[in-house]
Amino acid sequence: MPIDRALTDALRDRARLLLEDDRVDCVIGYETSPRGGARPAFIYDSGEVDRLIWSDACVHNLVTYLHDKKKPPKRGQPPPRVAIVVKPCDSRALNVLLAEQQIDREQLFTIGVACTGVRGADGELDGRCTRCSDRLPVVYDVLLGEPPDVEPVNDEYDQLEEIESLDPSQRLGFWLREFDRCIRCYACRQVCPGCYCTTCMFERDDGLWVDIGIELPQKHIFHLGRALHLAGRCVECDECERVCPMDLPLSLLNRRVVKEVEGLFGHRAGREEVPSPLLFELGEEGSPI
Amino acid sequence: MMLTTANGLRTWLDQLSKAHDLVAPCDVQGHVLYRPVKPGDEVLLEYERPEMSAKQYLLPDTEVVLRVQQHGKRLTLLENLSERSQVLFGIRPCDAHGLAVIDALFLEEAPVDRIYRHHRERTTLVGLACPEMWEGCFCTSVGGGPNDATHLDVLLWKADGGYAVRAITEKGAALLQDLPAEAHPDASPPRVADVEPVPVTPPEAWPALFKDRMWQRHGERCLSCRICTYVCPTCRCFDVVDRLADTEPGVTCIERIRVWDACTSTNYRRVAGGHNPRATKPDRLRNRFFCKFCYYPEDFGVTGCVGCGRCIASCPVDIDITEIMRDVAERSST
Question: What are the chain A neighbours of B312 within 8 Å (beta carbons)?
Fold first, then answer.
């Protein structure tokens, strides 16, 4: 996974300018990981911008870190101004947070990167990239890189066919086998830009629905509940699936809901800065919505 | 010392699984994990470091520690601990080392953790030496080793013609009585290529680094998930809650469960009134490292890390314990 030299240089130049001109307090981007790939990096000082890189190993959706930047560092101060590097899928998450008024647009400087897809440690194109035609972010203040010339793909939810062809009991069996491996580490929730409740309903001390036990019923309800809470909000960045130490195929679950929401409301989360229609649209009596 | 074959081992494991609760490395949908096995189940003999440590069979992720049943005006308190003996087969030396670290708190300091002791006493540890050190492994820097038999009851290693078997304790020797094996001239496990040593900074040097900026730098990336603590052979924090349990009509039953908890999670340190003294990710990451290399050794006499490398291999944002240990060593020497 070689570093993209031109894009990296452009990124460093932009970050240097932003920090030197005091336009932002922090640049959230990527640096080389000791394990070879890339990992998130937080740059506060223009002298450190050379840590920043761009390569196709930049898999992480950095938008999730904006939740740590909502509060001022000290009482009475304004919240920090942040520059953030976004791929097209990441930028859709940004749209969701903006629509849900989680972050102030004025706080942000968005460095969009033209994207040809990212790759995991195995060198394979990520699943999310094989069905993505977005080469440019939907939100950016500056765009780095040239829009690449890549054959567009039509997302037909093909990978759902197999699971949807199973009868309900087989499907339940499939999911329970998968959920059984879950260790309830909450990495899927923690990495998700859309999961930002101060107290997750699955972690309440007085939870009515699910206790803290790391057992199959709790894991089952947690994963189904999380998928539903993201209905119309999941931007399909598949970060939940990437971080899962037990490789649960969580994108299958989320995309099943995405497909349903698209069918009913014609809405794909984050394409525009609008909140999920599930929160605001009421159908007429008897209509499927 | 004895020598047995792979078939000999499998026959023995089949017998063990009838007489004991047997736990062994298995292929669970592509993941190498320690799992309970029944007679006939496939046990792995060649495998890398299992992704989770073996601690969950001594300190289960979820365990009912007490049942309170109410029939009319009568209350019954029940403990429901398995009386069967347990064999952990094919654990790695770092797993056994991890249990020794947990012992320092749960067994060697009063009050003893009775439930943990119960499981510890009913368990025999059969280790399989590691043929190599894998990604992230640094056991040799923290007092362990891929062949280390110190905390095991039996050590096995791959040898010419099969598996060499050495009883380390009497408990281990008793278990080996039914193993089809022949006597073998005493030999030692083969040497395994070491990795570059990782410096371990002594506990007394850590407090000076409490306010160092390095915690911000490493910790800001953290997701506050629980992977590192759950895969760790030495992390032993738990939470306890009571819950309503299913029961027959006319009887109310409350279960008290203890469940793994993680210092990396946001709510771990939250106190009544909502205040959270470790409110930020860097605060929490710093605590995790201070716990392992400063507080735990000072309070219980042993380092809280066995160098298994699982947290390195599984962290989704590449927080690397060895990188942090090197940073600490470098800063404390200047």
Answer: 35
d(CA A231, CA A75): 35
- Best mutation target among B238, B317, B323, B325 (most A Cβ atoms within 10 Å) is B317
Please tell me whether residues A112 and A217 are part of one structural domain. no
Distance CA B293, CA B296 (A): 7
Of the partner residues B31, B225, B323, the one whose CB lies closest to the CB of residue A190: B225
Residue A285 belongs to a domain:
no
What are A12-48's pLDDT values in tens digits?
999 999 999 999 999 999 999 998 899 999 999 999 9
- Tell me the per-residue pLDDT of A120-134, one tens digit each, with 9 for 90 and over: 888 999 989 988 888
Of the candidates B28, B223, B318, the beta carbon closest to that of A181 is on B28
Pairing of strands B31-37, B162-167: unpaired
Q: Kindly state whether residues A40 and A128 are assigned to the same domain.
A: yes
Beta-bridge mates of residue B23: B36, B88
Q: Are B281 and B222 in contact (CB under 8 A)?
A: yes
- Euclidean distance between CA atoms B306 and B304, whole angstroms: 7
| A37 in reach of chain B (CB within 8 A) | yes
Number of structural domains chain B divides into: 1
What's the token pair of residue A111? 């460095």
**A186: left (phi > 0), else alpha (psi -120 to 50), else beta?**
left
Report yes or no: B221 at the A interface, CB cutoff 8 Å.
yes
Q: Give pLDDT tens digits for A133-185.
A: 888 999 999 999 988 887 777 777 888 999 999 999 999 999 999 999 999 99
Q: Where among A121, A144, A167 does a domain terminate?
A: A144
- Specify the number of domains making up chain A: 2
Same domain, A138 and A9: yes
Provide the domain limits for residue B82.
Answer: 2-333
Q: Is residue B32 within 8 angstroms of chain A, CB to CB?
A: no
Q: What is the ipTM of this complex?
A: 0.95
Does A124 lie in the same domain as A168?
A: no
**Chain A contact for B312 (CB, 8 A cutoff):** yes
Express each pLDDT in B244-289 by its tens digit. 988 888 889 999 999 999 999 999 999 989 899 999 999 999 999 9
Single out the residue in A93, A119, A144 at which a domain terminates. A144
Q: Are residues A228 and A258 in the same domain?
A: yes
Angle at A248 between CA B87 and CA A254, to 5 degrees: 155
Calculate the dihedral angle through the C-alpha atoms of A56, A57, A61, A64, rounding to the nearest 10 degrees: -150
B153 to A233, A288, B123, B129, B246: CA distances (angstroms): 53, 63, 10, 13, 39
Q: Is residue A185 part of a domain?
A: yes
Domain span including residue A214 = 158-280
User: Do A139 and A9 share a structural domain?
Assistant: yes
A153 lies in a domain?
A: no
